[in-house]
From TrEMBL:
<dbReference type="InterPro" id="IPR003594">
    <property type="entry name" value="HATPase_dom"/>
</dbReference>
<keyword id="KW-0418">Kinase</keyword>
<dbReference type="Pfam" id="PF13185">
    <property type="entry name" value="GAF_2"/>
</dbReference>
<dbReference type="InterPro" id="IPR036890">
    <property type="entry name" value="HATPase_C_sf"/>
</dbReference>
<dbReference type="InterPro" id="IPR005467">
    <property type="entry name" value="His_kinase_dom"/>
</dbReference>
<keyword id="KW-0067">ATP-binding</keyword>
<dbReference type="InterPro" id="IPR013767">
    <property type="entry name" value="PAS_fold"/>
</dbReference>
<dbReference type="Pfam" id="PF00989">
    <property type="entry name" value="PAS"/>
</dbReference>
<dbReference type="InterPro" id="IPR003018">
    <property type="entry name" value="GAF"/>
</dbReference>
<dbReference type="InterPro" id="IPR003661">
    <property type="entry name" value="HisK_dim/P_dom"/>
</dbReference>
<dbReference type="InterPro" id="IPR029016">
    <property type="entry name" value="GAF-like_dom_sf"/>
</dbReference>
<dbReference type="GO" id="GO:0005524">
    <property type="term" value="F:ATP binding"/>
</dbReference>
<dbReference type="GO" id="GO:0000155">
    <property type="term" value="F:phosphorelay sensor kinase activity"/>
</dbReference>
<dbReference type="InterPro" id="IPR000014">
    <property type="entry name" value="PAS"/>
</dbReference>
<dbReference type="InterPro" id="IPR004358">
    <property type="entry name" value="Sig_transdc_His_kin-like_C"/>
</dbReference>
<dbReference type="GO" id="GO:0006355">
    <property type="term" value="P:regulation of DNA-templated transcription"/>
</dbReference>
<dbReference type="Pfam" id="PF02518">
    <property type="entry name" value="HATPase_c"/>
</dbReference>
């Protein structure tokens, strides 16, 4: 407390001394000793003001608070009423009034932006030098019109330059005095030099913090976008593979690709990718097709997946930039099911065509055959010694009639009587007939009938389907062969399977077994399986074939419908 009182007394002494000195100068009464005393008092006064104002430059980091406090210290000693602080805006190349005191909000709005040719501040900025205006009211300079409106008598504008960099301007004005002394101007100049450096530092730190906040927000948005992109990438139904062409490494792949290949992500990166150049590698045909697709629009590629299932895909690839390095994004469209559908449609078209032919000629051919057979029977009773020849002729006519009967089974417009029935009951009904046929050839037939619900079916057609598949299985087995008829549920399907332990179907014949009249048997008509497929199609069912050296299994999957 005592220090503050002493400092105040010392300050009052300095002020009084300065006033006496100024008064003595005006009256011409100060001698050499008085001049020395005045210089000493002025230096003390300058040090006092700079010391008080300088503390604010150290203590404050907020530009508005800093300048307000500095102005408060200066105005207490220099009779200041206004300060204006313009900051240079690099984007607009203009001066923006950021901090001020002593003017109204309406006056602020009128001078918020200045060009380098506007008013005293603009001139000081353009010239990069201090401009002093005394006795403002009597000045005719058009640049002074702005400060006249503020009621100022004296005004000084300083350019703020920090280590050669132009920061803005800082101006002070007084409504009480028409001029400033050289000491007061020197004090304001010294303060503005220090303010330039401090303000530049504060503005740089503020700009850096703002950039950091913007960068943090951009990073946050980028991470959010990456998460969204990763989520979208993972649920894309088409298999996608992204590879760096520079490092030859996988950048990313989605779940659809792993599902198609039937491997895990770890297996892809650790096992299959390192051996991608091997002749029997899982990824070799995929990569070759992807690279070819970079130069062509689409490439069709066939390959087995990890489970050995054949896959047919259409590959489309494009160049992508991955962290400023070239990369490749390959998209695969799985055409496997589509190709199967195409084969199925071709097969059905052939069956329908044959069915239409059967409907047209079947009945016409059977009529003359029936007549010929009748006459042959009559002749066999009257022609002695020729009965054996006539019996052979009748057998051949019966065989031709059976072929026509099967042929008519392919007719598209064949009448179907659908009723709810249990498949197991039908199998048990015809099982004695099947077992009798098997016993004659030294083979056995057993059943494994699981619990299944009733289904909508034509009993006559399903009976024909079962007998045809069983007959094919019995003929494919050697003596003492064993055939199993099974029924069971698989998800929402009722499955009928016929399994034999024959030598299996050769791979070059498996694609043709459903074609009408295709057979490898000497006495076969080639219509048995074609009829089976036709019956299955009419019941909305699908037939799968699994064959190998240990035997063949035909599985008919009927869709379960509500009873």
């Amino acid at each position: 407390m005592e220090k503050k009182i002493c400092r105040r007394r010392r300050f009052d002494h300095v002020i009084c001394a300065m006033q006496c000195c100024r008064s003595g100068r005006r009256q011409g009464k100060i001698g050499l000793g008085g001049e020395l005393k005045m210089n000493t008092d002025e230096n003390s006064f300058k040090l006092l003001v700079l010391s008080e104002a300088g503390q604010e430059l150290i203590l404050n980091e907020d530009p508005k608070k800093l300048l307000d406090n500095v102005f408060s210290k200066l105005s207490a000693h220099l009779d200041l009423d206004v300060y204006l602080n313009y900051i240079f805006d690099e984007e607009t190349q203009r001066l923006h009034l950021m901090n001020y005191h002593g003017i109204s909000l309406q006056e602020y709005c009128a001078v918020e932006w200045l060009g380098f040719d506007d008013a005293i501040c603009g001139e000081a900025a353009r010239r990069r030098s201090r401009i002093i205006v005394e006795d403002v009211e009597s000045s005719c300079d058009p640049r002074v019109g702005l400060i006249k409106g503020f009621g100022l008598q004296s005004y000084v504008s300083h350019p703020l330059i920090s280590y050669g960099k132009f920061v803005g301007t800082l101006s002070f004005g007084s409504r009480k005095r028409s001029s400033f002394s050289s000491l007061e101007l020197d004090i304001m100049q010294t303060i503005c030099s220090q303010v330039s450096i401090v303000l530049d530092r504060i503005l740089l730190i503020s700009a850096l913090k703002r950039k950091n906040r913007e960068l943090a927000q951009k990073n946050k948005e980028l991470r959010h976008s990456e998460k969204q992109l990763a989520a979208i990438f993972s649920v894309i139904p088409s298999p996608v593979l992204v590879v760096s062409l520079e490092t030859q490494q996988i950048i990313e792949c989605n779940d659809a690709l792993l599902s198609m290949l039937e491997i895990s992500r770890e297996e892809l990166f650790n096992q299959y990718w390192p051996e991608r150049h091997n002749a029997d590698s899982l990824l070799k045909p995929i990569l070759e097709a992807s690279l070819q697709a970079l130069y062509k629009s689409n490439i069709e590629v066939s390959f087995p997946n990890a489970s050995g299932q054949p896959k047919i895909c259409l590959c489309h690839a494009v160049y992508v930039d991955i962290n400023q390095t070239p990369g490749m994004l390959a998209v695969f469209s799985d055409l496997t099911e589509h190709k199967e559908y195409e084969k199925e449609l071709i097969r059905l078209d052939q069956l329908h065509l044959i069915g239409e032919m059967a409907a047209g000629i079947g009945h016409e051919v059977r009529n003359p055959l029936t007549t010929v057979r009748g006459f042959l029977q009559l002749m066999s009773k009257t022609e002695d010694g020729k009965q054996r020849y006539l019996e052979v002729m009748i057998e051949e006519l019966d065989r031709a009639n059976s072929i026509i009967s099967e042929f008519l089974g392919l007719a598209k417009n064949q009448r179907i009587d659908m009723e709810y029935d249990v498949l197991n009951v039908l199998i048990e009904k015809i099982l004695p007939l099947i077992q009798a046929d098997a016993t004659v050839s030294g083979k056995t037939v057993t059943t494994e009938l699981g619990p299944i619900p009733p289904m909508l079916m034509d009993e006559r057609l399903i009976r024909q389907l079962i007998l045809n598949m069983v007959r094919n299985g019995l003929e494919a087995m050697p003596s003492e062969g064993h055939l199993i008829i099974r029924t069971y549920m698989e998800e929402d399907s009722i499955v009928l399977s016929v399994e034999d332990n024959g030598k299996g179907i050769p791979s070059d014949q498996i694609e043709h077994i459903w074609k009408p009249f295709y057979t490898t048997k000497e006495s076969g008509s080639g219509l048995g399986l074609a009829v089976c497929f036709n019956v299955a199609d009419k019941h909305g069912a699908k037939i799968d074939v699994v064959t190998g050296p240990a035997g063949t299994t035909f599985s008919v999957k009927f869709k379960r419908l509500p009873a």
